[in-house]
Amino acid sequence: MFWNRSGVCAPALCVVLCGCNLVVQTISEYGGEPIPGVQLQVDDQPWVVTNAEGRASFTPPGGRYTLRVLQPTDATSASGRRYVTWDLLEIDGPPGNPVVLQVEGTFVPHRQVSLSGTAGAVTDGEIILWLEGGGVVSGGTATTLVDGTYEMEAVQWEGGDGRKATLHALQRNGAAFPATHYLAYGSAPVTLRDLAGTGGRIEGVDMLLRPIEEAAVHGELAVPPALAGQAYASLSVKLAEGWTVVGLGPVAGSFDVSVPQIPGAGGTSMSAWAVGSAQLDSEYGGQLRSVSPGASVAFDLPAPVELLEPADGTAIGADTVFRWSPHPSRGAYDLHVQCHWTQNGEEHDVNYRELETELTERSLPVFPGVEIPSGTSCTWDVAWREVGTGSFSVAVLDRQSRSSVSRVRTATFR
């Protein structure tokens, strides 16, 4: 009688009878390695620092709650330059327990290795290779020769020695996406080893490519006027280790895509997006859809919101109210503010990665120990995501959603 119909311990009695506190885990957004030392807060409960497994426990809030993340980092680069950063989030607590958050992972130590072997002779087109699993953050760059041998340099991964990964190989013709056709596929297990911590080499990772079938998917793309720049689409396949992009290129209006039927694949998805211009601070709108072989899929890209105030280039501070236009569709907004300065030859960065709200205005929250000097250069923008789509920082493998990001504005902190 103390459990609900889904088998989850009833919140009011959870601590006393079940011991099922709310658990939040922080992992690297790149390789998934647990991140210790991140400060977390649920509502007005005391701040808790994540342990070696990246975990922190809280009294169950019993309903909707606010989750705050304060991630301080003090690191020195290989060149001796010091970086002091603060990554901050304030989001609506996502459902489920435990909650897994993807946080800043730039400064997580990496190991590195090179791979070589054979992937089968190339009689048509090209062979692409990629490494998945085992905390891999960079699959390296692979060159496949006509005789089928390959060299994959600078494979990097997070975590310890002996991690298990899988090397994949996919043969495709030379046509640019979306006209790409897929011919054969193979894979091989790899144990990543870098005992000296200085980079190593693994030879003889050979694969046998076998012919595969294809399926056709038809796409229709609708782009709002605000996103008058180039539109793109990508095709991803879900393998055991996660989603992998197997094709990407510019599209417009109506297009057809061939989907490789890889043995053991757990699904296929397509993303479409467009930008307002080629400028880095341009607007963005995108949509992710799952697709079935032989089906048609329509993309209706959402327009970005319009920033209202403060005006571009003006001063901001702790009391500034950031405002923007409402999106025509239901959803949530994320205010993003980033400020950077150099002090005594050291790089400092405060990044409010995600400040969530359902309103069309937001101020900067106060985080303990975080201060921005007067005169610091900052930027800000606002993302929109449709109703039912959780925070961008929550680790979700299968996410269907529409989202957009506004143009970036500059500011000076006072």
Structure description:
The chain has 414 residues and is mainly beta. Helices cover 2% and strands 52% of the residues. It contains 1 helix and 32 strands. It has one helix at 11-18, and strands at 22-28, 39-42, 48-49, 55-58, 66-76, 82-92, 99-103, 110-118, 126-132, 136-138, 141-144, 149-158, 163-172, 182-192, 200-202, 210-211, 214-222, 231-239, 242-250, 254-260, 268-275, 284-291, 296-300, 307-309, 314-316, 322-324, 331-343, 346-357, 361-362, 377-386, 401-405, 409-413. The strands form 6 sheets. Strands 2, 3, 5, 6, 18, 19, 21, 22, 25, 27, 28, 30, 31 and 32 form a 14-stranded mixed sheet that branches. The longest helix is centred in the first third of the chain and has 8 residues, at 11-18. The model is unreliable at 1-18 (pLDDT under 50).
List keywords for this structure.
single chain; 414 residues; mainly beta; 14-stranded mixed beta sheet; 5-stranded mixed beta sheet; 1 helix; 2% helix; 52% strand; disordered N terminus
List low-pLDDT spans: 1-18
Separation, N- and C-terminal Cα atoms: 56 Å
Broad structural category: mainly beta
Strands, total number: 32
**Total of helices:** 1
Q: Could you say which overall geometry the principal axes of the C-alpha atoms support?
A: globular
Overview in brief:
With 414 residues, the protein is mainly beta. Helix content is 2%, strand content 52%.
